[in-house]
Amino acid sequence: MAFLQPTIEERLSEHDNYIHGTGVVLEPGELADQELFLEWFYRPSSGKVAPMMLNFNRQSESFYNYQGMPWFTRPKLTGEASVEGPFVDLYGTELYILAFSVPIFAGGHFVGVAAADIALHEFDQLLTRCLLCMKNVAFIINGEGRFIAANSANWFVGNMANRTAAAKVHKLKPLSIEWSLVELPVPR
Question: What whole-number percentage of the chain has pLDDT above 90?
Answer without folding.
Answer: 48
